[in-house]
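re: the backbone from monday

yeah here it is again, tokenized this time
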């Protein structure tokens, strides 16, 4: 079934009283703000950005080099941007799914799958070792087909996985609905081992505390305005002080990059999310969702959803809204929330009348190949890791390791990967970029309305390795 874009009054009323803020960040035990940088300082390593990518970079650098003087700065607060606004799916995949990985690096996929699952294991081990209370649970995930053509895609995914030694289970409609009951489900694929669920804000805050226990200095509300050479190092300019560092790691996600050369490789797209009120025991029984596994449907524009420890349903995705700029004014899209609510009650008519308490949006650093890319600048003094395209909760740790390998000039199995040695195809400059993304968004919507049939424009993008979806 194709999801309707007509928004009913009842759907709009379901989030009429929702607060405009991320649920994960809306809690009284949120850490107090850390001080901003007020005077010039020096560091061996400066990490710019205190989301998952920057936090893992600072943490892993401190583990590798215990005597290193590390400074971590952020223009806001730890985890305030994408890292505190996502769905909390911690995926082993480094390539945004098997299909995209097989299309780009088929020979490397066995190694990439192994590295991805080792990375997920290492995240779990770090959470346990550091005592991070973040509701981390190895729940798994189920991808569901809601239209007939998507069943073939799921079957192909299972076959690809089997060839790589990955254990996925193909589920009938009855088997899926035994886990979570929706009249829209036609089939599913369960990945019991490759995805965990987490409270992302608590993970970010816990990682920051772990960094500080290892000697990392963190400054919040300290945006870096400029980067320049100074001697054998880099001088980073902020509003109230400069940081002279031997090396700099850029983990700035969707924000305008501090290296102008990166501007054509990423675009910011906004993903919207609704969080429900807690389900009653009767409501939860009506849909049969007794586990904690995450779910996602299989359209080009897809929904992802999971249930929290206090029995709320997070429901996000579908629209990938591109505006050409960023800011708080882009975080409240009533039509995007309306479509989400409409689709929610189409999926779960048993929950008609349920209210949403929170609504929010976050910017995703999208690149044309849908997975991270890396590089260095200023003679190897600056490293960067960008382009996670919505799957960075888990992959950001791997990305941090690659960035540190490059900054220290280390030859590792990670740096030898073709994935790490190549970059995505850049987006065209504006205004051509805006027009191309607009045509792509229209084409994707048409494909979802027409049994997945991709028009000439999308087929051309597929051939040259460009993409854009939710």
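seq for it, each position gets an aa:
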């Amino acid at each position: 079934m194709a999801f309707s874009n007509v928004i009913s009054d009842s759907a709009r009323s379901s989030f009429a009283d929702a607060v405009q803020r991320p649920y994960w960040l809306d809690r009284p035990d949120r850490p107090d703000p850390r001080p901003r940088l007020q005077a010039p300082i020096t560091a061996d390593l400066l990490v710019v950005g205190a989301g998952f990518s920057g936090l893992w970079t600072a943490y892993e650098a401190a583990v590798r080099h215990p005597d290193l003087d590390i400074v971590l700065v952020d223009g806001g607060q730890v985890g305030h941007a994408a890292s505190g606004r996502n769905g909390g799916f911690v995926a082993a995949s480094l390539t945004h799914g098997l299909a995209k990985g097989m299309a780009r690096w088929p020979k490397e996929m066995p190694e990439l799958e192994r590295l991805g699952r080792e990375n997920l294991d290492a995240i779990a081990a770090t959470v346990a070792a550091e005592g991070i209370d973040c509701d981390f649970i190895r729940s798994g995930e189920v991808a569901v087909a809601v239209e007939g053509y998507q069943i073939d895609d799921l079957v192909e995914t299972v076959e690809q996985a089997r060839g790589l030694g990955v254990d996925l289970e193909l589920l009938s409609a009855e088997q899926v609905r035994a886990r979570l009951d929706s009249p829209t489900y036609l089939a599913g694929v369960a990945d019991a081992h490759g995805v965990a669920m987490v409270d992302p804000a608590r993970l970010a805050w816990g990682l920051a505390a772990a960094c500080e226990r290892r000697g990392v200095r963190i400054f919040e509300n300290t945006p870096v305005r400029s980067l320049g050479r100074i001697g054998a190092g880099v001088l980073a300019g902020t509003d109230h002080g400069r940081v002279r560092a031997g090396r700099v790691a850029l983990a700035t996600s969707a924000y305008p990059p501090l290296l102008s050369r990166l501007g054509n490789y990423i675009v910011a797209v906004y993903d919207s999310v609704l969080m429900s009120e807690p389900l009653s025991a009767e409501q939860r029984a009506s849909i049969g969702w007794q586990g904690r596994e995450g779910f996602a449907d299989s359209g080009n524009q897809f929904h992802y959803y999971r249930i929290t420890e206090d029995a709320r349903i997070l429901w996000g995705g579908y629209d990938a809204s591109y505006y050409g700029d960023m800011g708080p004014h882009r975080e409240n899209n009533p039509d995007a929330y309306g479509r989400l609510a409409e689709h929610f009650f189409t999926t779960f008519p048993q929950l008609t009348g349920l209210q949403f308490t929170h609504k929010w949006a976050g910017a995703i650093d999208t690149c044309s190949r849908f997975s991270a890319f890396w590089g260095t600048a200023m003679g190897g003094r600056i490293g960067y890791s960008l382009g996670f395209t919505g799957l960075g909760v888990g992959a950001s740790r791997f990305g941090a390791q690659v960035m540190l390998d490059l900054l220290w000039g280390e030859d590792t199995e990670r740096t030898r990967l073709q994935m790490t040695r190549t970059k995505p195809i850049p987006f065209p400059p504006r205004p051509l970029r805006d027009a191309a993304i607009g045509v792509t968004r229209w084409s994707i919507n048409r494909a979802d309305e027409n049994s997945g049939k991709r028009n000439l424009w999308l087929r051309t993008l597929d051939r040259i390795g460009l993409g854009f979806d939710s």
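The CA atoms of residues 266 and 367 lie 5 Å apart. The mean pLDDT is 94.
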